[in-house]
Amino acid sequence: MSYTALYRKFRPQNFEDVKGQEHIVTTLKNQIKADRIGHAYLFCGTRGTGKTTIAKILAKAVNCEHLIDGSPCNECPTCRAINAGASMNVVEIDAASNNGVDNIREIREEVAYRPTQGRYKVYIIDEVHMLSAGAFNALLKTLEEPPSYVIFILATTEVHKIPITILSRCQRYDFKRITVDTIADRLRELMEKEGNDVEDKAIRYIAKAADGSMRDALSLLDQCIAFYLGEKLTYEKVLENLGAVDTDVFSRLLREILSQHTSQAIKILEDLIIRGRELGQFVTDFIWYLRNLLLISASDNPEEAVDVSRENLERMKEESQMLDTETLMRYIRIFSQLSNEIRYASQKRVLVEIALIKLCQPVMETNLDSLFDRVRVLEEKLNNPDIMITSRSAGEENGISGSGKENDYREYGQTEQLSSGSRPLKAAPEDLQYVKQNWNSIIRETKGLFQQMLLESTPKYDGNTGDPVLYVEFRNFLAQTCIDDPENLRILKQAIQKKIGKELEVKMVLKKEEPGAGNGGLADISVDELLQQNIHMDVTVENIEDED
């Protein structure tokens, strides 16, 4: 006799064997016991959650000759005929390959005849969302008012594709994803019946990898058992067979990423590839690992938030404290985008390596969540005393001291003064030259009409006194409104102080356009004249020629 796959061999034959859909099983059993059976049912949910299985059990139950608490007996001739697929009363149709109007018309013609055996004719239409628009229209009237002996059971994984006119004529039942615990318990039960030796940790991983589908779990288990036929199925063997990665690897990888060890992270990936791990599964599992870290960091009770062993939970708690929520969400975003791209990529390894580099080097991205990660890296470096000592030593070697004697202005000194709260130093005459050289950058600190007027102005000084007073001479008569506004003067003085780190007296004047008129002794700022006035000696500028 040929081998039968586990999911077919252990398909539930009564309601009690169905796992994870108790809310649906209880409702259907109560309807059968009270003889309140509907004429149209819609079973919707993800793959492998029991839609077709419960549809067949319901078809047996409504025709069973010896019901047992609402479940079929599986012993009477009707039940045996349905189990063998030989009953004329249960018709199973695959809408994916029979989706035309003619297929539905055949059903409409058949429902005119009463069942030859049993009470009901049951039509199970699987993947009903695949029917064409014409087929749905042909089904409408029959579905709304079928003969009393006809029951329709529609099953679909994409309920949003079904017309509302069909939905309104059916009792809808939503099948939930089956929990990991429920799947694992069922797998243990079946392995005991089969006499296979399977490690509990391996069963837990298969149950998790099934993603809520009992059929997928049984298929994965069947695959692993066949590969290691006659041997004990361990956790490591399951990982090797499914091309999966152990959580210890994810932990090591995450810590290398947080330390910005790009080469080490790439080496871990290379080791996985050499061991034959499947990159798509690696990306999916790492997203789940990051998701668990996010749940742990956001939950008051991490033990209930994630399904991991105690030792893994302690390690993941420690890792969740090593990075903030924004950084975790950035990691999940990058790998979620990667999971969509990697399906159809020919160079999967390159895409994964690029994603790891992005995680290790947040400076490569300019969006907001990468900025949080960059700030985290900077804070870690600033909090590292070794780095601070190295930076200070390097500064001393380059001639930078804390005395503030260097003449290259001066943003750092100005910031230090402002942060200390002390009053800035008075500007010296030579500071006017620096203001003139950086006049455009000072103007950029202003805005609006005042900025436009400053672009047409000239910074000057009083040649008669030589005092360090900056005169801003405007040439446009419209600037008078800016001169009269004291807020503009405050903004300009603040911009100058930010630039030179000193307090400078500023006066704004309007240039006289009449012949012979002027603004006193105002003159263009020249460093030579200022120095000559203050040190009372001639200034000689030598031209240094290159030696032959």
Automatic annotation (TrEMBL):
Cytoplasm: present as a keyword of the record?
no
Give the matching InterPro entries: AAA+_ATPase, ClpA/B, DNA_pol3_clamp-load_cplx_C, DNA_pol_III_gamma-3, DNA_pol_III_sug/sutau_N, DNA_Rep/Repair_Clamp_Loader, HLD_clamp_pol_III_gamma_tau, P-loop_NTPase
Q: Which GO terms describe its molecular function?
A: ATP binding; DNA binding; DNA-directed DNA polymerase activity; metal ion binding
Q: GO biological process: any one?
A: DNA-templated DNA replication
- Which residue spans traverse the membrane? none
Q: Which residues form the signal peptide?
A: none
What keyword terms does UniProt attach to this protein?
Answer: ATP-binding, DNA replication, DNA-directed DNA polymerase, Metal-binding, Nucleotide-binding, Nucleotidyltransferase, Transferase, Zinc
NCBIfam families under this entry? dnaX_nterm (TIGR02397), PRK05563.1 (NF004046)
- Which PANTHER family does this one have? PROTEIN STICHEL-LIKE 2, REPLICATION FACTOR C / DNA POLYMERASE III GAMMA-TAU SUBUNIT
Q: Which family does it belong to?
A: Belongs to the DnaX/STICHEL family.
Specify the protein name: DNA-directed DNA polymerase
The organism is Candidatus Blautia stercoripullorum
